[in-house]
Every structure is written in structure tokens, then in C-alpha cells.
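HOLO CASE FILE
Compound: NAP
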Amino acid sequence: MDQNTPILVTGATGYVAGWIIERLLTQGYTVHATVRDPAKTEKLKHLTDIAEKSSGQIHFFQADLLTPNAFDQAMQGCEIVIHTASPFVITNYKDAVKDIIEPAVNGTANVLESVNRTASVQRVVVTSSIAATYGDAIEIENTPNNEFDESCWNTTSNENHQPYSYSKVAAERKAWEMAEQQNRWSLVCINPALVMGPSLTPSSQSGSIELLQQFANGVTLLGVPPMWNGIVDVRDVADAHVAAALSNDAQGRYIISGGSLSLLEMGQALTKRFGYRYPFPHFTVPKTAFSFISPLLGYTREFVKLNMGYPIYFNATRSQQELGIHYRDIRESVCDHFQQLLDDGVIKKRG
Ligand code: NAP
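Model generated. C-alpha cells follow.
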């Protein structure tokens, strides 16, 4: 592709989008970056700094997911659209429908309506999630090989139970539905696990940071519940988006996961790197005990029943074979992320 043909990236201020844009600028591409509020220049500084040092160029456009036609101007002349913008909010929300589900689903439809109006667009990459492949960890028991793969769909989340997961599966389904109604542009969905690794900006509010903050503030010192996360390094997620955008052969969904770790294993990796100065978890609280106190900690008993005690695994073979991803060590990613939150002052340094 001609490097002067712009590539649109939505949600440019985000944790994941930052690294996608870094990859594109470094490779000399022109990026049309949409942001909600371009006046907040401190949220854009890392991107303008990268652009200054690279051969690529960046141009910012204002666009809110819920404003009709908001993406039209930014999309002019683009052959590729990478849609990452979506609220990644697990706990701090007031109204799940308004705060999470509507921006995710209606926002995706809004972006794709602009794509339908923009004749130059040929490839759309949507950032979905592994949350679109399953709802609760217990569902691993129904998989033939004890792992979720791209044939799996989340059919159990809803507005009241796992609303973030519901927002991701509903948005991805909307994207496939709209892709199937036309034949000019092709859709590729990227389904990352929990993303860890250094952020290019201290201003992102990504839910990725929440867990590490809990590890640092002592909430988990007395123990963590028996829960597992698929985890992946943010730079691998960025590489997957860029490969999906630029490769003619990329098609369908791609799980992007470097492996699974329990919360305890994450704590152990952090203790190994940072020692005992921080209140990382060293114990697992048994499920029955956790269930007893769970409402006090913001977990419903239903959530505990369906999600604790079930190790989950993801098959990322397609991404390795077709997108050429060589996954980084996820324990290193967790530790590098923690180090970066310390360096940025997001987590207070101790000792
Ligand atoms: P993030 O740093 O919070 O980025 C989210 C982006 O979405 C921000 O740029 C935000 O813009 C934008 N956004 C939210 N609501 C918007 C609205 N109404 N209009 C326009 N833009 C809006 O989170 P992230 O971790 O990078 O997440 C990026 C994508 O990856 C999301 O689709 C998320 O679901 C997906 N994902 C993330 C993970 C993970 O572990 N981080 C895992 C799987 C999938 P503002 O700066 O204006 O708020």
C-alpha cells in the first residue's frame, strides 16, 4: 500500500491504539487519528512526539462514537480503518447500557456506516476481545480441547451480567452483520486477551491498569481468588492489528493471547521482579471462602460460582501462522507494565 494513503485509527488516545499508531508511524504511514477531545493536548503528546521522530505523519480529527457521521471527514481517502475506540470499563461505571454497551455497539455501527459511505475503504480491522469468545470461565468445560478458539462465541453475557463482555460480543456481531451486507470492504477482528505491557501514555484509563493498581494498593495482600486470565503483551496486540490491516490474506477472527496466568501466578512474577516492598498476593483464597465475602468486594455470588476455580486457556495458533505473531513472555509483560506505572507515578514507588 502507498504509504501516503492515510490509515484511520479510532480511539487514538488509548493504550492499545498508541502502540498501533507507533508501529504505523515508524513504518512511514500517514495516520488519521480520531480523538474525542483534541483540545486535551497532553493526551496526544506521546503520539506527536513519535510522529516527529519517525518518517510517518499524524493528523488528528475530533470524533465521538455516538455522534452520527463523526468519522466521515477523518476517513476521507483511507483504504484501511482500524477501529479500537470502545469503553474498556469493568467496574467503575454507573449505567452499563449508556456507559459501555451503547458506545461499543452503536459506535461500531456508526464507524461502519462511515465506511459504507467512503468508497476508498477496502479493509476494516475491529478490536474485539477474547470476551467475545466466552462469557464465564466455567464454559471452558464445554470446549473440546480445553481451550477457547475463534469458533467460540459469548452467548451468556448480558446487560446485567458481565456487561463489558456483552458490549464486546454485541459490537463484534454488529460488525460481522454489516460486513456481510456488502462486498467492497473486508473485515478482520482482533480478539486480544487481557493486555499488559508498557503504555506509551500515563493518561490512559484502560481497565488493564485497574488490576495492577489493586496488586499495589494492598487489596490482594491477604489473597486472591482462584481466577485465571489470558494475557498478551500490548506490542504483540499492535503487531496483530498492523498485520491484519496490511495482509491481503488475513481473514476472520484472530485470538491474540500469549498464555494464561492465575492471579496468584501474576503476583508471584511481580514478587520475583520487585521483591516484598509491594503487597503482592502470595495466597489463593479458596472459592467457598471467597464466595462468603464476595458481595463486600463487589463480586456477585453468581459471578464467583461461574468464574472462580476454572483455569481458562486460549488457542492463538491462527495468529501465529497467519499474522506471524511471536508472543512475548507474558510474565515479563506484567512486570514491565508495573514498572512503567511506577515510572509514570500512577503507582507510588516504595522503599
Ligand atoms: P483505553 O486506553 O481506555 O482506550 C479506549 C479508547 O476508546 C480511548 O481512546 C477512548 O477515548 C475511546 N473511547 C471511549 N469511549 C469513546 C466515545 N464515546 N467516543 C470516542 N472514543 C471513545 O483502552 P484500551 O485498553 O486501549 O482498549 C482499546 C480497545 O481494546 C477497546 O476496544 C477494548 O475493548 C479492547 N481490548 C482491550 C483489552 C485490554 O486488556 N486493554 C483487551 C481486549 C480488548 P478517550 O481518550 O476520549 O476516553
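CASE NOTES: The mean pLDDT is 95. The first helix runs from residue 15 to 26.
CLOSED: yes
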